[in-house]
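Hey, I'm writing a tutorial for new members on how sequence and structure tokens pair up, and I'd like a real worked example in the thread rather than a made-up one. If someone can provide the structure for the chain below, I'll link this post from the tutorial.
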Amino acid sequence: MPSETPLSVPIVAVVLAAGYSRRFGAADKRIARLPDGRRLLADTVTRAQEAFPLLRVVLREEDDPAALGLPRETPLLRAPRAERGLGASLADAIAAIAGDDALADTGAAAILLGDMPDIAVTPLATLSSQADRSRILRPSYAGHPGHPVFFGRDFWPELAALNGDDGARDVIRRHRDRYREIAVEDPGVCRDIDTPAELARGATLLIRNGRGTKAPAS
């Protein structure tokens, strides 16, 4: 169920999942199994939905969401330039939500990565309550910046102009006066999964936290 925490502005969560994850090897990282048997991307999306009433999942044009373990009703965006890198996928997604009449009142976008299943709902609610159209917010844990990054709608035109694989670093650099990191007590905001070894280490952490009590499905 979506969080009932009041939001300062309506927020849409954008889960980026159109990358090719070459560091993970030949397998599609998005369907890798977590210790509770869930698929990596599907679990990340489920946890995001607990915090955000509005959500969009960004996939490549050729992706079959059912094959990725996503429910039929998952709201999708397609990234036609996914092969150009993260920045291009993010730009495609932001352009789509900016032009969506159903999201006309949305004041900020929370940019999540599809390979971060350990983020708890509490830090998401904390940042959501402080987001607005003219801020960039980011969680940090033990002094390290993490995800998601909340971009107020004022910054969407710059995000929609991104290309290549650099993401939104330059947008943040240009607006340091409106950028704020918020310390949270959740290491999950800094834990993404790029390799099978990282998936295995993450499995140990999930089991320790009580989320993984059965073997992965075959």
